[in-house]
Amino acid sequence: MESILIVDDDVNICTMLSEELTEIGYDTYFLTSGQGVLEYVQNNQVDLILLDLKMPSKNGFEVLQELHYNNLNIRVIVLTAYADVQSAIEAANLGASDFISKPYDFDELLITIRKTVQREV
Ligand SMILES: [Mg+2]
Which of 42, 78, 98, 115 fits a disulfide with 91 by CB distance 3.0 to 4.6 angstroms? Predict the structure, then answer.
């Protein structure tokens, strides 16, 4: 199964998503800050990132930019409570594959994850 990195400053969301996805069979790891993402993906196999946008110190847009500048073509699904059109466009321009609003519906999220991991990067 694919490995999924969850990045959200809300540790409850991280642990909940991690448990739900692990139960289905995905390998999961989570970070509660955008700071460690680059280092983690450079040293570990990551097939998909579930990325929160609003985080202190380094937000989701900055993480997307950082991945892009380092030529790391990893699929990213943005998961955010701030699901407005402008954020969606900006995230897509920075390489995000899809956009899910919080509170997320797990079945909808799962469909999006399955669709995204099948897609070519
Ligand atoms: Mg947040």
Answer: 78
Averaged pLDDT for residues 46-69: 95
Q: Ligand 1 center to residue 20 CA distance, Å?
A: 19
**118 C-alpha to ligand 1 centroid (Å):** 27
CATH 3.40.50.2300 fits 3-118, yes or no: yes
Distance 39 CA to ligand 1 centre (A): 20
- How many Å lie between the centroid of ligand 1 and the Cα of residue 45? 24
* Token pair of 33 as six digits: 């800050």
Q: Tens of pLDDT along 68-90?
A: 999 998 999 999 887 678 888 88
pTM (two decimals) = 0.94
Cβ atoms of 42 and 68 within 8 Å: the answer is no
pLDDT tens-digit profile of 22-48?
999 999 999 999 999 999 999 999 999
User: CA-CA distances (angstroms) from residue 120 to 15, 31, 47?
Assistant: 28, 25, 11
